[in-house]
Specification:
This protein is an alpha/beta fold and 178 residues long. Helices cover 42% and strands 16% of the residues. The strands form two sheets. It has a six-stranded parallel beta sheet with strand order 5-4-1-6-7-8, with helices on both faces. A two-stranded antiparallel sheet has the order 2-3. Helix 1 crosses helix 7.
Amino acid sequence: MDALLDTHLVRAAKVRLMIFDVDGVLTDGSLHFGADGEAMKTFNVHDGLGIKLLQQSGVQTAIISARQSPIVTRRAFDLGIQHVLQGVHDKRVPFEKLLRDTGLDAEQCGFIGDDVIDLPILSRVGFAVSVPNGRAEVLRRVHHVTQAGGGRGAVREVCELLLRAQGNYEAIMAQFLG
């Protein structure tokens, strides 16, 4: 098991851009609809702080989501996520755009997803992650599966793993420990 963890840490150490799916990753996958038909999503504040800490360490962040949602746009703005690509069912298209825009190659990217629509990106990135309730086809093909579920701290877990793998965890935490 230690060798497997070491492999994950080596992959995580190379990540310069961490990409997040939304439904099932940044949220628990539930969609709540108000009386006017507006979809509502619930985000985890611990995940949000994890993203901010990762950005502090110099890792860029992005969202790629098949659904188009003003709620996601707002959450991304609040978190300072630079790259927000929504409303594209074929996630390869926004992924290729991200690579062009950032000048990075796929090996320098991490992606956390949970469903088969995410497989085209998960199969290309250097560090592929899923949540424990991801689809079986996804779980068989990723490098790492979080302990926490989507919308329940999985993103924070990945952010802290990246910080540790890149040797930045202690320095980032020092601001809180005095």
